[in-house]
Design goal:
mainly alpha
Length: about 130
């Protein structure tokens, strides 16, 4: 594993994930009437975004490493989709699962993860040269 690629890719991926979340959830899907609107713990959200960036970077830095944009999109989209559905299954284990919201969340996670994956792959490719 290339530690430098892992660290730089994780930081860049986490920041991209945070900014995408701000754009999608904070601006495009902002619902000021939601029950918990304005009560978000931004430090925990930022930490979660950084952890996801490092997860993608860890996966990409294993073995030969993922350094191509399209390959990064494919792998990260799969990871994003699976982690989103995995989380929803555990989050709703005591109440009914809203399939429409789960599908929307999975689609958003897939898209965000694909962009993070493309970014981390490009960063890895640039650092390899």
């Amino acid at each position: 594993m290339n530690v430098k690629n892992f660290i730089v890719g994780g930081i860049v991926g986490g920041i991209v994930n945070y900014l995408l979340g701000w754009l999608i959830y904070g601006i495009l899907l902002n619902d000021p009437t939601a029950p918990n609107a304005g009560k978000e713990n931004m430090m925990l959200i930022f930490a979660g975004c950084m952890i996801f960036g490092f997860l993608i970077s860890y996966i990409f830095s294993q073995g030969e490493g993922i350094t191509k944009c399209v390959h990064g999109i494919k792998v990260a989209a799969g990871v994003g989709l699976l982690t989103s559905v995995w989380f929803d299954c555990f989050y709703h284990m005591y109440d009914s699962l809203d399939y429409k919201m789960t599908a929307m969340g999975a689609a958003i996670s897939l898209a965000m993860a694909a962009i993070v994956g493309a970014t981390v792959a490009v960063v890895n490719g640039k650092m390899k040269a």
